Structure formats: structure tokens, C-alpha cells
Amino acid sequence: MKAMVEKKIENLGSYVIDLLTGLGEFMNYVSRTLYWTFKSPYRFQLLFDQMYFIGNKSIFIVFLTAIFTGAVFAFQIYVGMKVINADSFIGPIVTIALSKELAPVLSGLVVAGRCGAAMAAQIGTMKVTEQIDALEVMGINSFQYLAVPRIIGATLSLPLLSAVFLLIGYMGAWIIGVNVLQIDEMIYVSKISDFMDLGMVAEGIIKATVFGYLIGIIGTFHGFNVQGGAEGVGRGTNMAVVWGMITVLVVDFFLTSFLTKIL
Amino acid sequence: MSKYSIEFRNLVKNFGDSAVLRDITTGIHANKITTVLGFSGAGKTTLMKHILGLTMPTSGDVVVLDTCINKIDELSLREFRRNFGMVFQYAALFDFLTSFENVAFPLREFTKMNEAEIKDKVMSLLDSVGISSEAAFKLPSELSGGMRKRVGLARGLALDPKIMLYDEPTSGLDPITTHMVYDLMKETHYNNVSKGFTSVIISHDIHATLKYSDYIIFMEKGKVVENLDVESFKRSENPIIRRFLEL
């Protein structure tokens, strides 16, 4: 019995140590990437390449996600609001939900899945095939060359994608609300302008910026920490997606609590 | 400058409780081809990582071209690494760039050469290692193992290094390609030696080592057993070396 308790305590201690070590490594990584972000040389071409990959190449999937989210959300709100004869509120409810929550969170999840995975896989493959060592031997800082453009690229691209999401989601809701459910167009638009303000859009943009930074950091961190061969790359990619998505959802809660007070 | 381009002074490296390099004091002769030879796990690759400053010693010093590289700051070390060229075990070419772009990469990063000058230099380097202009615009995945090593060598030579390092350069190659790669390494060495050029090869291929090296550093269990010229190495009475020679 005593031995069993000792074993449990030992396992718990080992788990806590591993957790704290991981956290320490992550914080060390964050500080290193921050340091190298502001050091020359500044590689703008790599940044534009990453923004093209994260932003432009994600537009189609963001478009599909946004238009159906807006449309389905409008339809569901209509079903609920019709009961209390408040179906003209579809516009403001959908637009507020999109601008404050759905656009940043869903575009964050899309980017975490698509680009966080790609970052971890690209960097992880470079690590196991010694390409990162080759950069270091040439005197090039691999964090600065590989991580910094991806992190800044995600930080700058996600608010833009979130804005696109908001616009397309609004269009999806408008198509359902005005064209399918026959809500008067003037009422639909005027209700939105009655309830919406710029602070709500700003809240979404701030959230998307923070999510972009976190997805970039998590994706590249798991790429640099890949160990072993192809299996290690797979594990790193999986971790980048899982932690990227969890982080978006958890941080969204705390950001909402904070931003609602100040905006 | 001393007769050595690289010196290890009481070099010790531990990873946790395990000692990987144990009090190594020796040197690599300037302007010669030296092979670091030994069984797997002898510490050869760790020794090479110390030369490049990719791993720092637990104690002792590594002096390269009269600079103690474990005592300089990170930015200086990165700048200092431009003295090195390196050919990796599996070439480590950037897989998203063509052969041409791989060789042009260090030139674009570290020189102010214009595109025409870069093109001339890259094509001349690729030509010197026997890569055709057709293969120059192929991705590494479209090249054979031997061709990838040659492109890796051309990339390593792009910045006119003073020290060229080869990590198991012929691993995974057939015997004929192995000798072609060694011939190329030797030719490269003697083409550059007048400018001051040291070649260091990490290997466990005893036959190629005896044929192509000037000096051999033999390692076992983290220690340097001998550092001898090839003829003395062949005559060594050390039982570990004799065992290796008889393989």
C-alpha cells in the first residue's frame, strides 16, 4: 500500500516537473523569438511569402466556413426569434456574434489547423533532415530565418482573414435573412446600425491578432522541438494543431472577459 | 599561426551523467586532410559540433584559426562560422530550392554580388563538382544521392571557406560513387590549399580514409587514441587500431 502511494506521488511529481520544464522551454522560446524579431537583417520577402501562404491561400476555406456559418446562424436565430416575433433582430445578432466571436475564433481555428500544422511539419522536416543545422553552420539564426517570418506573418494575416470572415459571414446571413426568409432589407440593415459599434469590430480584430501570434508561436515551437524521424514530425504536427486550437478557445474566454471591460 | 588550424584543449563534454568527450587535447593540421575515425558512438560527431560551435564544451577550449570559439559571443560566433563549409551526411540541401538556388543561398545572404555575378559563380561551382546545367535547376528530390552530395559540396564552397567539414560524406553511396566523391573532395582540397584550406572528414570507412587522408585522429569511447599521419597510423601497434585496420 505504502509503495503504491509512493509510486503515485512519484508519478505526480514527475508529471509536474515535465509540465514545468515544458512551460519553461516554451517561455524561453517565446523570449528568443521576440529578441530575434527586432534584430537585423529583416527578411521582408520571407514575411510576404508567409503572409501569402497564411492569408491568401486560406481565403477559400475561410470563405466557405464564413458563408455557411453566417447562413446557418441566421437560420437558427430566425427559428428561435420567430417564436417571440423578433425575427427582425437576425441582422444585429448575427453581425455582433460574427464580429466579436465567430470571425476571430473560427478563422483562428482554420489557420491553426491549416497553417499551424504546416509550420510544424515544414520546420520539423527541416530539423530531422539537418537543414536547420545547415542554416546554423552558415551563420544564419534559424529562429530568425524560420520562426520570425511565420509568427509575424500569422499575426498580421489573421486579423485580415477575420475581417474577410466577418464580411462573407454577413453576406451569408443577409442572403438567408433578406432573400430566403423575406425580412425587409431596410429593417435588416437599420437594426444592425442601431446595435453595432466600432468597438465590437475592434474586439474581433484584437482577438484575431492575438490568436495569430499564438498560432505562429505554437506551430513553430512544435516544429523546432521535433525529435526522431517521420514519426516525430507527425507527432509535432499533431501537437501544433491540438494546442493551437485549444489555445484559441481558452485565450478567447480570457480576452473576452478583458476586452468587454475596456471597449 | 600554429601548425594546427583547429585545437582542442582539455575538451570535456557531458550530456547529463554520460561523458561523451573525455579530456581531449589534440589538433587538426592546417592545410591537410584529416579524418576523424572511430566506431559508432565514439564521439566523432560531437567533436565536429564543437568545431562549429553548435555544441559548447562542459570544460576546456576549442580554438579554431586562433580564435577560442567557446569564449566569443553568439553574434561573433555566427560571423565566424562563415570560415566553415560543411557537407552533411545526407547533404541537407534545402528541399524547397533547386540545386542552383541552394548554392546561391549563402551568396545571397552574405555577399553583395548582383544576380549576374551570382549566376556565374554558382554555375562555375556546380560545374567544378560535375553537376550539369540541366541538373542545376532540379529540386534535391529529383537528384541521386551522389549528386546531392556534390551540390552540398558546391554550396559549402560558395563562400570560400578556410575549413571544410564532411560528416560521413559517403554514407549510403555505392562503392564507385563513394570513390568519386572522395576524389572530388581531394581535388577540391588541393585546388584550394594555396589559399589556406583545411579539410576535416568524419568517417568510419577505413579503406577510403587510408587512401585519401593526410592525418587520422582515431577516437574510441570519447577519447582520442591516436593522432598520426597515415603511414604512422598503418604501423601503429595500438591494439584498438590494429583491430580496426584488420576489418
Q: What does this molecule look like?
A:
The complex is a heterodimer of chains A (263) and B (247). Chain A has one domain. In chain A, 87% of the residues lie in helices and 0% in strands. Chain A has 9 helices and no strands. Chain B has a single domain, classed as Rossmann fold. Chain B is an alpha/beta fold and 247 residues long. Chain B has a 6-stranded mixed beta sheet with strand order 6-7-8-3-9-10, with helices on both faces. A 4-stranded antiparallel beta sheet of chain B has the order 2-1-4-5, covered by helices on one side. The chains are: A mainly alpha (263), B alpha/beta (247). At the A-B interface, helix 5 of A face helix 2 and helix 3 of B.
Task: Give the gist of this structure.
The complex is a heterodimer of chains A (263) and B (247). With 263 residues, chain A is mainly alpha-helical. Chain A contains nine helices and no strands.
Brief descriptors of the model:
heterodimer; A: 263 residues; mainly alpha; 9 helices; 87% helix; globular; B: 247 residues; alpha/beta; Rossmann fold; six-stranded mixed beta sheet; four-stranded antiparallel beta sheet; 27% strand
Topology:
The complex is a heterodimer of chains A (263) and B (247).
Chain A: H1 2-37, H2 44-54, H3 59-83, H4 90-128, H5 131-137, H6 142-180, H7 185-195, H8 198-224, H9 230-262
Helix pairs in contact in A: 1-6, 2-6, 3-4, 3-6, 4-6, 4-7, 4-8, 4-9, 6-8, 8-9
Chain B: E1 4-15, E2 18-29, E3 33-38, H1 44-52, E4 59-64, E5 67-68, H2 74-80, E6 84-87, H3 99-110, H4 115-128, H5 145-157, E7 163-167, H6 175-192, E8 198-203, H7 206-212, E9 215-220, E10 223-229, H8 230-235, H9 239-245
Parallel strand pairs in B: 3-8, 3-9, 6-7, 7-8
Antiparallel strand pairs in B: 1-2, 1-4, 4-5, 9-10
Helix pairs in contact in B: 3-4, 3-5, 4-5, 5-6
